Amino acid sequence: EVQLVESGGGLVQPGRSLRLSCAASGFNFYNYAMHWVRQSPGKGPEWVSIITWDSGTVDYADSVKGRFTISRDNAKNALYLQMNRLRPEDTAFYYCAKDLRVGAITYAFDIWGQGAMVTVSS
Amino acid sequence: SYVVTQPPSVSVAPGKTATITCGGNNIGRKSVHWYQQKPGQAPVLLIYYDSDRPAGTPERFSGSNSGDTATLTISRVEAGDEADYYCQVWDSSNSHRVFGGGTKLTVL
């Protein structure tokens, strides 16, 4: 079964850091670009970051650029999101998501995890 | 940044056709994906590249994209189609990567 499972969410104070992890299984993880997408309660999704299959290209939404870092470990089938200098507006469910096609960037997310809730509050 | 507009809600009777629009400047020149999200669940990819269906998406769901409007059409609507629907726009030439605000589909 193709599956993504996020972990590492929680309550954190503004200005602090948090690291999310995403464990992938059931597909050749090393062949696909991966993304982080977040969704605040009652709002639409917001794309956060992308990393290509070989980690050769990463990119970020302007709202997180300079504060968040995406990375992956293909040997461990794992995706990460290091979030620094967190703000209250970063409060959201964070989903890892698989890009649709092998070796390509489509921004079509065909597999999503169940999400990890991050709450930034004092 | 690129702005995408969806109607907040659409209502339709069972068995009828629902049309959900996604508006944006020259959206017809961009790639549009559509997602369905039910309460408490992650979004599910319904349509990609304007009109292609992933395996598992019923043929009742179709998409089109032209001019300033992309459209998701749901034929023979069922009670189980009640959900939030989001369009997502991607333009590789200028890195537009944005979701619409979502449309809540109510089956009467």
| Mean pLDDT metric of chain B | 95
Spans of chain A with pLDDT under 50 lasting ≥5 residues?
Answer: none
The total beta strand count of chain A reads 11
Describe the global form of chain B: globular
The topology string of helices and strands of chain B comes to EEEEEEEEE
Separation of termini of chain A?
39 Å
Quaternary status: heterodimer
What's the tally of helices of chain A? Answer: 0
What is the percent of helical residues of chain B? Answer: under 10%
Shape type of chain A: globular
Helical segment count of chain B: 0
Structure summary, number of beta strands of chain B: 9
Our estimate of the beta-strand percent of chain A is over 45%
- In round numbers, the mean pLDDT of chain A is 97
Distance between the termini of chain B: 36 Å
**What percent of residues of chain A adopt helix (DSSP H or I)?**
under 10%
Tell me the Rg of chain A in angstroms. 13 Å
Main beta sheet of chain A: 7 strands, mixed
Could you give a short account of the major beta sheet of chain B? 6 strands, mixed
| Rg of chain B (C-alpha, Å) | 13 Å
Low-pLDDT stretches of chain B? none
Describe the structure.
Chain A is mainly β. In chain A, 0% of the residues lie in helices and 50% in strands. Chain A is built from no helices and eleven strands. In chain A, the strands form two sheets. In chain A, strands 2, 4, 5, 6, 9, 10 and 11 form a seven-stranded mixed β-sheet that branches. A four-stranded antiparallel β-sheet of chain A has the order 1-3-8-7, with no helix packed on it. The radius of gyration of chain A is 13 Å and the shape is globular. The model of chain A has no long low-confidence stretch (mean pLDDT 97). With 108 residues, chain B is mainly beta. Helices cover 0% and strands 47% of the residues of chain B. Chain B contains no helices and nine strands. In chain B, strands 1, 3, 4, 7, 8 and 9 form a six-stranded mixed β-sheet that branches. Chain B has a three-stranded antiparallel β-sheet with strand order 2-6-5, with no helix packed on it. In chain B, strand 3 (31-37) and strand 4 form a beta hairpin. Chain B is globular. Chain A binds chain B through residues 43-47, 59, 61-62, 95, 100, 105-110, 112-115, and chain B through 1, 31, 33, 35, 42-45, 48-49, 54, 86, 88, 90, 92, 95, 97-102.
